[in-house]
Design brief:
The protein has 5 helices and 14 strands. The chain is α+β, with helices and mostly antiparallel strands and about 220 residues long. Strand 6 and strand 7 form a beta hairpin. About 20% of the residues are buried. A 7-stranded antiparallel sheet has the order 6-7-8-13-12-11-10, covered by helices on one side. It is globular.
Length: about 220
């Protein structure tokens, strides 16, 4: 099948039936959602889950229908394939980004990174370095820019009420962009570490990604 007939017959039908009933609640993990979307996309189907606009009430019948359909076309190993090493849990007005504690990543910062590109007019105002956190503060008159590097077992809270979306920085879906009260920020994974760039007022998405892609190894003295 080269179109979305399978999706229409199994997934959408199961979803409609489940939401009209008072069946058992089911909350699939972010890992499952990402893996399922990737598996469907690789076989020419539309993603089942939108990355952030995911309804919270799901029935077990939906997952059963999808799993049965995928079992005909892919291996268990493909379903379990990782996409990124962080997860996002959405709530009404905020979201939590949590790194994968089981990832084979360092527990402390062993290699320090900093952007080699910063928009014109910004100057470094402060650098804070710790064993698990590195932060560089930039300013340009009344504008501010913060770059930070973190290790696994780290989580952040973000304002998800205005706008949140997944973006591609170095790889597919390895970053998150959000807007909040005039700020625009991104979160991304690179080289076994996790990074944030927060701009106030908000820089464009293109400019934030340009800063992200310019990061390179540096060496600062720990406080």
């Amino acid at each position: 099948m080269i179109d979305n007939t399978l999706r229409s017959l199994l997934i959408d039908a199961a979803l409609a039936e489940a939401e009209e009933s008072e069946g058992k609640e089911y909350s699939p993990t972010d890992r499952f959602k990402l893996a399922l979307n990737k598996a469907l996309k690789s076989r020419g189907f539309d993603p089942f889950y939108t990355f952030f606009a995911i309804k919270r009430r799901r029935a077990l019948a939906i997952i059963a229908a999808v799993a049965a359909a995928l079992a005909l076309t892919m291996s268990v190993g493909a379903i379990r394939e990782r996409v990124v090493n962080f997860f996002i849990e959405m709530f009404d007005t905020y979201a939590v980004i949590t790194t994968d504690k089981n990832a084979d990543y360092p527990k402390t910062i062993e290699e320090q990174y900093a952007p080699s590109y910063i928009p014109e007019g910004y100057e470094i105002k402060g650098i804070n370095v710790d064993y698990s956190d590195l932060e560089i503060q930039y300013s340009n008159l009344d504008k501010s820019l913060i770059f930070s590097q973190n290790v696994k077992s780290y989580h952040i809270f973000i304002d998800a009420e205005i706008h949140v979306e997944n973006i591609n920085v170095f790889l597919e879906n390895d970053g998150v962009l959000w807007e909040s009260k005039g700020a625009r920020s991104i979160y991304f994974e690179y080289g076994c570490y996790f990074f944030q760039i927060i701009s106030q007022p908000g820089l464009s998405e293109e400019e934030l990604i340009k800063i992200a892609k310019s990061i390179e190894k540096v060496e600062f003295t720990k406080n």
